[in-house]
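User: Reviewer 2 asked us to show a designed sequence for the structure in our supplementary figure. I'm pasting the structure tokens here. Could you produce the per-position amino acids so we can include them in the response letter?
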């Protein structure tokens, strides 16, 4: 879930028109193609690396890898276990252009190994794009009840891995005046109850992305932030989080919140998954546009409420917005515990 990637490149030489039509499979509208075409003409090689959240065998990683390989692009997909089920699924879905590589984005050694491999494939042409898409949600819970291990995991995977990846690959990106695409979340912009660990790590990534956009502009490197909202990226075994949350909670927290409420928290993960959109194409479209458009946006907000809730937060009085954002998470167990006080 935290440590996969893919690379692709396409040669633009004497067959620009062919690739112009071929890339039509990546996007839905001719207007997008007309925007992208001038960019293709200015490039010799395009190479993109993507580190998906739920692994290339599910979520954004699988959707993006599938679209790129179907378009005939050269794809290198990194997985936590190159011999695991996810890797096998990639090989089955991919064409001869797809290769599976081993990578854990929290392992500095594996990142350096990946860098050496990518560098050896570029032949001094530079790296066109890097997509930092690693992410982990853990389990929705009150900030007080989140185990410290959950905070550390979210920061390591959602934020620090993007920092490390950017630092390692930036020399190659500078050479090509390429692009970095960071996969953040609406939860990194809007304070969402029950998502303190996840939201804080994504907020750090969003700020990092904006700072890098300013700093790297002098090198001609473009940095883009994607903030999806409400997409189902993977299935998770919610029950496995219960013991971790219960054991990490203090005796006072167990008494104040009540064991019934604490035990109900893992079920919220399944509820969130059921309420999320299964169609990931808006996010994949946004990533492709960010990588290949002549003039990409600084921020993409695909998904339901992706732009509306941040807008509402900035326009509404805090008391009004708090009432709106808290309404879906009211819980009778917690309310009863509060009433007892």
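Assistant: Here is a per-position design you can include in the supplement:
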């Amino acid at each position: 879930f935290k440590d996969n990637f893919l690379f692709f490149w396409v040669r633009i030489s004497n067959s620009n028109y062919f690739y112009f039509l071929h890339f039509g499979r990546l996007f839905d509208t001719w207007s997008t193609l007309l925007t992208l075409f001038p960019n293709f003409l200015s490039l010799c090689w395009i190479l993109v690396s993507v580190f998906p959240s739920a692994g290339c065998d599910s979520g954004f990683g699988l959707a993006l890898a599938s679209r790129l390989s179907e378009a005939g692009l050269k794809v290198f997909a990194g997985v936590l276990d190159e011999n695991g089920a996810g890797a096998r699924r990639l090989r089955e879905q991919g064409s001869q252009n797809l290769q599976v590589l081993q990578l854990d984005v929290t392992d500095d050694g594996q990142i350096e190994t990946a860098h050496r491999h990518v560098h050896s494939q570029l032949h001094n042409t530079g790296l066109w794009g890097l997509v930092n898409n690693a992410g982990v949600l853990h389990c929705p819970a009150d900030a007080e009840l989140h185990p410290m291990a959950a905070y550390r995991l979210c920061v390591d995977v959602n934020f620090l891995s993007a920092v490390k990846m950017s630092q390692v690959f930036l020399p190659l990106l500078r050479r090509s005046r390429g692009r970095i695409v960071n996969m953040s979340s609406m939860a990194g912009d809007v304070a969402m109850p029950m998502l303190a660990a996840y939201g804080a790590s994504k907020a750090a990534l969003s700020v990092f992305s904006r700072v890098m956009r300013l700093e790297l502009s002098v090198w001609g490197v473009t940095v883009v932030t994607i903030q999806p909202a409400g997409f189902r990226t993977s299935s998770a075994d919610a029950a496995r989080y219960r013991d971790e949350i219960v054991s990490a909670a203090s005796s006072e927290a167990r008494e104040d919140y009540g064991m019934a409420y604490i035990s109900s928290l893992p079920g919220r993960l399944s509820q969130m998954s059921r309420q999320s959109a299964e169609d990931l194409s808006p996010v994949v479209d946004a990533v492709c546009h960010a990588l290949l458009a002549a003039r990409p946006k600084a921020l993409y907000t695909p998904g339901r409420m992706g732009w509306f809730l941040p807008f509402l937060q900035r326009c509404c009085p805090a008391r009004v917005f708090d009432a709106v954002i808290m309404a879906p998470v009211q819980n009778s167990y917690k309310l009863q515990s509060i009433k007892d006080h």
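For the response letter, you might also mention the following. Residues 85 and 309 are 37 Å apart (CA to CA). Residues 5-237+279-314 form a domain with the Rossmann fold fold (CATH 3.40.50.720).
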